[in-house]
């Protein structure tokens, strides 16, 4: 995450409003919170990056500086890397509510209503190479979870929960290592302090039923592998009728000729060695039509020729990438007698110029000979 931009860290678009920024922050903070990833150094680092991103994007002044100048513009404005929650006590409290099922601000830690499933859901869709570049429409088929009417999403018979016996309703259990005592979220009630005394028979204690749904979604131009698209109001449904969001995880198929890196497109172009010696101009396929490739005399193997702005449109509207041609010099696999004779004549026609190694070798032989004098 360290080298990712703040919008990528929170997985939001540049035009996200404050509500979306806060929601994304809370989701990412819960995902990487140290209390949920004990001993995981990578999660700890990611948690710091998430807070750093939120500290900037939730502040109008810092966000404006970052959008215009990047991280360099934040120097001296408190935009440095943070190590804790930067969103204030209100954000900290709400995150703990979601993580552990209790309010961190209350004196007696009042238990909150909890369900057996998350309100947001996700699915993966696979796109063809060209679909990701130019955008498309896709029919999405997925199953969302709807709260069980009988148990009201709790998994308990008639929705009746009892005090969790594992933690005595505290939501936490304690373990001792040497002279230290550590608290962790109760694995039985997941921090709510309540658990089912009798299982719901209708849903087999799952707390929900699954419902099939199909709908069409617009895939924006320039979407890339591992990007996510948020579909508002297409997630799971809680018993109170509230519905979460569906996140589409994007996977893109490879192409047999083109290679994509961010918004740039690469293609390897085989060029015969005589064309390299003479120079040439070729018509080549770009992603939006023909391009004229001018190959100067003496072009090197693996040399790259760039067509600026002929790549992929950035999904966040930041212009276009480049189309880059990498030269691959090809030589004949075998020569007939006539071709061999012609190449020998060509070689001899250059005279001393065709033997640039002679001067180097002469100097080297003289040097080595002195070692034994």
CATH topology of the domain at 1-100: Helix Hairpins
Rounded to the nearest angstrom, the distance between the terminal CA atoms is 61 Å
Describe the sheet with the most strands: 4 strands, mixed
Q: What are the low-pLDDT stretches, counting only 5+ consecutive residues below 50?
A: 80-90, 100-112
Task: List the defining traits of the structure above.
single chain, 373 residues, alpha+beta, Helix Hairpins, HSP40/DNAj peptide-binding domain, four-stranded mixed beta sheet, three-stranded mixed beta sheet, 9 helices, 27% helix, elongated
What would you note in describing this structure?
The protein has 373 residues and is an alpha+beta fold. Among the domains are: 1-100, DnaJ domain (Helix Hairpins, Orthogonal Bundle); 258-330, Urease metallochaperone UreE, N-terminal domain (HSP40/DNAj peptide-binding domain, Sandwich); 337-371, no CATH class. It has helices at 6-10, 18-32, 41-57, 60-69, 88-100, 129-134, 273-278, 337-349, 357-371, and strands at residues 121-127, 136-147, 161-163, 172-177, 180-185, 194-196, 208-219, 228-231, 246-252, 258-261, 264-272, 280-286, 289-295, 304-307, 323-330. Strands 10-11-15-14 form a four-stranded mixed beta sheet. The chain has a three-stranded mixed beta sheet with strand order 1-9-8. A two-stranded antiparallel sheet has the order 2-7. Helix 2 runs antiparallel to helix 3 (41-57). The radius of gyration is 31 Å and the shape is elongated. It starts with 5 loop residues before the first helix and ends with a helix. The model is unreliable at 80-90 and 100-112 (pLDDT under 50).
């Amino acid at each position: 995450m360290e080298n990712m931009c703040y919008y990528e860290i929170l997985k939001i678009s540049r035009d996200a409003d404050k509500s979306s920024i806060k929601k994304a922050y809370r989701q990412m903070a819960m995902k990487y919170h140290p209390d949920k990833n004990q001993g995981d150094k990578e999660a700890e680092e990611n948690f710091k990056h998430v807070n750093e991103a939120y500290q900037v994007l939730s502040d109008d002044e810092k966000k404006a500086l970052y959008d215009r100048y990047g991280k360099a513009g934040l120097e001296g404005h408190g935009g440095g890397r943070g190590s804790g929650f930067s969103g204030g006590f209100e954000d900290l409290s709400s995150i703990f509510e979601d993580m552990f099922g209790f309010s961190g601000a209350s004196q007696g830690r009042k238990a909150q209503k909890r369900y057996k499933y998350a309100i947001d859901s996700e699915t993966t869709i696979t796109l063809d190479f060209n679909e990701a570049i130019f955008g498309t429409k896709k029919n999405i088929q997925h199953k969302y979870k709807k709260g069980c009417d009988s148990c009201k999403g709790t998994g308990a018979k008639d929705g009746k929960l009892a005090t969790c016996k594992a933690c005595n309703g505290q939501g936490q259990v304690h373990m001792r290592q040497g002279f230290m005592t550590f608290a962790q979220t109760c694995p039985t009630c997941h921090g709510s302090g309540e658990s089912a005394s009798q299982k719901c028979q209708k849903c087999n204690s799952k707390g929900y039923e699954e419902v099939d749904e199909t709908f069409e979604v617009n895939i924006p131009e320039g979407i890339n592998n591992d990007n996510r698209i948020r579909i508002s109001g297409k997630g799971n449904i809680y018993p109170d009728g509230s519905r979460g969001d569906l996140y589409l995880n994007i996977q893109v198929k490879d192409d047999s000729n083109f290679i994509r890196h961010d918004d740039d497109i690469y293609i390897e172009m085989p060029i015969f060695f005589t064309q390299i010696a003479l120079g040439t101009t070729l018509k080549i396929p770009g992603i939006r039509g023909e391009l004229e490739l001018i190959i100067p005399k003496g072009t090197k193997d693996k040399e790259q020729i760039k067509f600026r702005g002929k790549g992929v449109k950035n999904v966040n509207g930041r212009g276009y990438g480049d189309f880059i041609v990498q030269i691959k010099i090809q030589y004949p696999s075998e020569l007939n007698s006539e071709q061999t004779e012609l190449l020998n004549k060509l070689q001899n026609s250059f005279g001393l110029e065709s033997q640039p190694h002679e001067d180097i070798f002469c100097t080297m032989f003289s040097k080595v000979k002195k070692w034994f004098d």
